[in-house]
Amino acid sequence: SRGPFVGVNCGAIAENLVESELFGHEKGAFTGAATLRRGYFETAGGGTLFLDEIGDLPLPQQAKLLRVLETRSLRRLGGSEEVRVDVRFLAATHRDLGRAVADGTFRGDLYHRLKVAEIAVPPLRQRKGDIPLLANYFLSGICLQRGKPLTLAWDALARLEAYPFPGNVRELKNVLERSAILAKGQVIREQDLPFLDAGPAEEAKGGGDFLSLKEYAEREERKHLLEALKRTGGNKSRAAEVLQISRQALHRKLKEYRLDQL
C-alpha cells in the first residue's frame, strides 16, 4: 500500500502500443524505440497496477497479460530476459465479461484468473445516498479550480436525486461543472439545472430491480426530508416543525440518509 499506484485506461491506448505500454520495450525493438522503456507493470513495482476498462484489451494482449499474472514475470518487447514483477493487480470494466467470454471477445481463462475477488458497483440511480457525498466532493474540487466558492441548495439536491443519471458518476460530475458555470451567485439552485430532465423519479423496475418494502419506505422518507428542506430553504428548525419532529430527530434522520454533508 505504500508503493506506487499506477492507473491505466486500456481503452485509451492505441492497439499497436498496448504491449509496449504494459510490458515495456528494449532499445531498438521497433522503429522509434531509441531507449529502453519500462512498462506499467514495472513502474508499479512494489505497489498497485489498476487496469481500467480491461474489457477493451485486445485478445492478443489478453494472452500476454494472463501469462504475467500466472508467472509474475514478463519479457519486454524485443527482449529475451525474464523480468520479475511484484504488483497488486486491480481491474475494472463496464462490460459484462461473462457475456464477452461467451461471445469470444474476452478470454475465459483470463476472466477466471481475474475473478479472485469481485466487487460489483451498482449504478448511481440505485444508490441515491451517494449523491450528496459525491456532489459535495466534486463541488469542492470545482471551487478550487475556478477560485469561486459554491454551495448546493436543497432544491438543487432534490433535483439531482430525482434524476436517474444514465451516465452514472461521470455524468454527475459533468452536471456540477455545468451548473457551476450557469450559477449566478455562490449557491447552485434548482433553476441552475434547467438542462436536467428529471422525468420520473425512478425508472420502471422489473425482475431483480424490484424494490423491497423496506427500500421503498426508505426512498420515500428520504424524498420527504428533501422536500421539507427545499420548502423551508434549508432551515432545519423550520423543517423539523413542518415534519412535526424534534430538531434532534431531524439531525438523526439527515445523518442516517447522509444528507448532513451539505
Largest sheet composition: 3 strands, parallel
Oligomer: single chain
Helix content: 40-55%
Beta-strand content estimate = 5-15%
Record field, number of beta strands: 7
Helix and strand run: EHHEHEEEHHHEHHEHHH
Question: Helical region count?
Answer: 11
Structure classification: mainly alpha
Shape: elongated
Poorly predicted sequence stretches spanning 5 or more consecutive residues:
198-208
Tell me the span between the first and last alpha carbons.
31 Å
What number is the mean pLDDT?
A: 85
Gyration radius from CA atoms, angstroms: 24 Å
* Biggest β-sheet: strands ordered side by side in the sheet: 1-2-5
How would you characterize this protein structure?
Helix content is 44%, strand content 8%. With 262 residues, the chain is mainly alpha-helical. Strand 3 and strand 4 (83-84) form a beta hairpin. Helix 7 packs antiparallel against helix 9. The longest helix has 19 residues, at 213-231. Mean pLDDT is 85; it is low at 198-208.
What key attributes describe this structure?
44% helix, single chain, mainly alpha, 262 residues, 3-stranded parallel sheet, elongated
